[in-house]
Design a protein that fits this description.
With 86 residues, the protein is mainly α. Helices cover 67% and strands 0% of the residues.
């Protein structure tokens, strides 16, 4: 199975249509336009994203939090063993 590289760059990769549009824009001297994001939607997304994990954690009991942490640790160690031993 193909594995992703450990560190991926933050930049997004273009598909073939985006690449073609960029090449045409650069060769004709036209400015490259980027899609505009709705600032209100961005603010709402950040607001909900920053609250989500904390709100979920506050509703869990200590035993549930411990179980989730235990499963996460097992998954990390299992993945580490697979990469070490092929």
């Amino acid at each position: 199975m193909h594995r992703r590289p450990r560190k991926e760059s933050k930049e997004r990769h273009e598909d073939i249509n985006q690449t073609a549009a960029r090449i045409v824009a650069e060769s004709t001297g036209q400015p490259i336009s980027k899609p505009n994001k709705n600032p209100h939607a961005v603010a709402l997304g950040k607001l909900g994203g920053s609250k989500g994990g904390f709100a979920r954690a506050s509703k869990l009991s200590k035993a549930e939090q411990s179980e989730i942490g235990r499963k996460a640790a097992q998954a990390r160690w299992h993945a580490a063993r697979l990469t070490r031993h092929g």
